[in-house]
Amino acid sequence: METVLSIKNLTKRYGRLTAVNNLSLEVQKGNVFGILGPNGSGKTTTLGILLDVIRRTSGEFYWFGQEPTKEMRKRIGAILETPIFYPYLSATKNLEIVAQIKGVSKDNIDPALKKVELFDRKDDNFKTYSLGMKQRLSIASALICDPEVMILDEPTNGLDPQGIAEIRELIKSIAKDGKTIILASHLLDEVQKVCSHFCVLKKGTLLYSGLVDDIDKGIINVEVGAASGNLEEVLKAYPNAAKITEENGKFVVELKEGGAAELNKYLFENSIEASHLLTLKKSLEKQFLELLAESDNAA
Question: What beta strand segments (E) does the chain contain?
Answer without folding.
Answer: 3-14, 17-28, 32-36, 58-63, 76-79, 149-153, 180-185, 197-202, 205-211, 220-226, 241-247, 250-255, 274-280
